């Protein structure tokens, strides 16, 4: 592995600048054309009349971020292709969300999913879940069309890496090397909770993860509410399924290509150590291997940045929506201000979150591997929040106090396990890596260590020689005592948080109701059609005709609900 410095060509920089200009141009076009986003509905929900195709690609682009593009190949390189099998159960969660949760959001016609929680439970529940979203996540029409462009860049970048890899290595050779290296294998059929990947936790997480995203995640729900009616929204959601699975599968294959390229000289443990963490594998491959073709690294970098920009732009718009609807309007009673003032405030909030995001990237450089951290934070928060939504839509006995107890209990438990695991230093078992084919250009290497692997190689070598180490030595098995819960695979964090939230929230509600003698009187529009159909009640609306209420109708519904709640 040579030590020459890889740099970008002029063509690479031109492609990157063009990508930024086109992305910015789309936003400026929708700013100075059409309705110019004069209302909060136009700015936050794109006027509720978006076409199906750009929304489907936007869902894919925001669901699969730069974390997917960079982190998934690294995960496949180190642990194998096991995460790909989450795609088997992923559609199940999507279908459940489309029939259990989506009709409720369309019936209420609000800008944020958390407004539902105030009407179903109360102001405190809405505020708490909104704050969790702001901590967790970091004009909608411009965002959606920009996401379409950036989704195309993501596919182009991934295809460029794959085509170049297959031409250099060979299509069948990539899969042969991956299979022999243990990267292509089924997850273990084990009931152990400590095994990183098993058939059960992979399939369960695939379903629950998609249910979290499309049943309780503001970023995705806000997209689905930009469609005119629920039929078009479901069609868009189902169209995004093959897009998500295809792109995720391609990123897994990219991991196999990178492994096939470096399987005899792993850059993580090579003597000259060109990279220090697995997250750098994808950028290193793009510059090192694709650098000989002018424009190709730039094309791939555009794909990575397109994935990042699509997620960031989606988050900025959703953060603005949640802050406006769930905090500004709620606590400052700003409904008395004009619609123009509210729209300008929403745009200012988007700018504020954009600046804040830039500042956070400066701080992020000090934290090392952020991919694993972001996954843990998402699953730590996603399960508890989903539990609150399901308790509200699928039960009539859950009250606000019980829901809050379930939310906080679940959140504390998942946070305890997540941070406890990180603090205990538990390291997962990795697949073998080789440095057999590495060419060494130095006189002495006394200690070669890898923080990602937690191992050390001792070697003294003459100048310009080949290492004779075929695999990384086994990690010392003697380790201090670790609390059993800290050994649980991170794949169980989301399902565990959901289960605890549901059980604790429901039981707490029943106990509180029996003690106080007060039982919740839940209006039918706050319940999922699935529950009302099973209970024999009529929904009071036809799903095919279900559309988001207009502004006047939504205000009337809000006032009517407030009168109902005060009466109860």
TrEMBL record:
Supply one GO BP term. sodium ion transport
Q: Give the bilayer topology.
A: Multi-pass membrane protein
User: What name does UniProt use for this protein?
Assistant: Sodium-coupled monocarboxylate transporter 1
Q: Name one GO cellular component term.
A: plasma membrane
Output the superkingdom of the source species. Eukaryota
Question: Which gene carries the instructions for this protein?
Answer: SLC5A8_8
Which InterPro entries does the UniProt record give?
A: Na/Glc_symporter_sf, Na/solute_symporter, Sodium:Solute_Symporter_SSF
Q: Which Pfam families does this entry report, sorted A to Z?
A: SSF
- GO molecular function ontology, one term from the record: symporter activity
Query: From which source organism is this entry?
Result: Araneus ventricosus (Orbweaver spider)
